[in-house]
Amino acid sequence: MIDPALIDIIKAAKRVVVFTGAGISAESGIPTFRDAQSGLWEKYDPEKLASAKGYRADKDLVWGWYEWRRMKVMQAQPNAGHYAIAQLAEQVPDLTVITQNVDDLHERAGSQTVIHLHGSLFQPRCFACARPYQFENTALDEPIDGRCLAPPSCQHCHGRIRPGVVWFGENLPTDEWRQAETAAKNCDVFFAIGTSGVVMPAAGLPVMAAKVGATVIKINLDSMGLEKVAKYRLQAKSGDVLPLLVDLLNK
Question: Which DSSP category does 8 fall into?
């Protein structure tokens, strides 16, 4: 049951931030980063699959793994939580979506502008010159089942293309982080959805919001995290809670 006072707070809000983590994508069947190490990939060290050093050592292995992940994303569909967030944008004057996820489910659900703190599987770039690279096809030509796959070459410098995600040891993208900080420091309501709120620096966003007096709302199956800053803690799937919340806002 959603507290009626929470609905009143959201209705009165002028600026809302929705911050999402792996939990919301997991509801669409996308394995989390650690889950993705199981099965065919369990023999590999995650840091070798997600670091510049690992890429230099075996480009085909790393590119193949990320193409496998991209395939899994393309096979998945946005869930009710993703759609509810897009609908929520129509209920409040200003809504900013910030995600730690590297998939495109928010966009496919209808969210217009999404800040990707950890990059995107759909925005690869050259490892040498950093120019963006466009996939020739939105879909993969054939299944990727744990096989090495040679990355394409850059059309400008002929360097190899790397996944457009933030690897271990890399900083978050400067512009996206600045936008996220600004949104957190200027919001009235801050949703933390499907995230434990412990991985820094992203975990600092709800703390920033709480410091300026925003109401922090945590929605996650895991009860841990954000104990000191979340005024409302809803231990449930986002696909169950968010559609109900949107319906209540319309009444």
Answer: H
State residue 247 phi and psi, 5-degree precision.
-60, -40
d(CA 119, CA 164): 6
Among this protein's residues, is 118 annotated catalytic?
Answer: yes
CATH topology of domain 31-75+125-162: SIR2/SIRT2 'Small Domain' (3.30.1600)
Q: Is the pLDDT of residue 212 over 60?
A: yes
Q: Find the mean pLDDT for residues 72-100.
A: 96
CATH number, domain 1-30+78-118+172-251: 3.40.50.1220
The interaxial angle of helices 174-185 and 204-211, nearest 10 deg, is 30
Count helices and strands in the chain by DSSP H and E runs: 10, 8
Residue 119's beta-bridge partner residues?
165
- Give 74-86 as a DSSP string: HH----HHHHHHH
Domain boundaries of the chain, sorted by first residue: 1-30+78-118+172-251, 31-75+125-162
Identified catalytic residue from 82, 106, 116, 118: 118
Residue given tokens 């993703």 in the structure block:
82
What would the pLDDT profile of 32-80 be if each residue is shown by its tens digit?
766 655 555 566 787 788 999 999 999 999 999 899 889 889 999 999 9
pTM score above 0.85: yes
Lowest mean pLDDT among 15-29, 191-205, 228-242: 191-205
- Calculate the CA 190 to chain-centre distance: 16
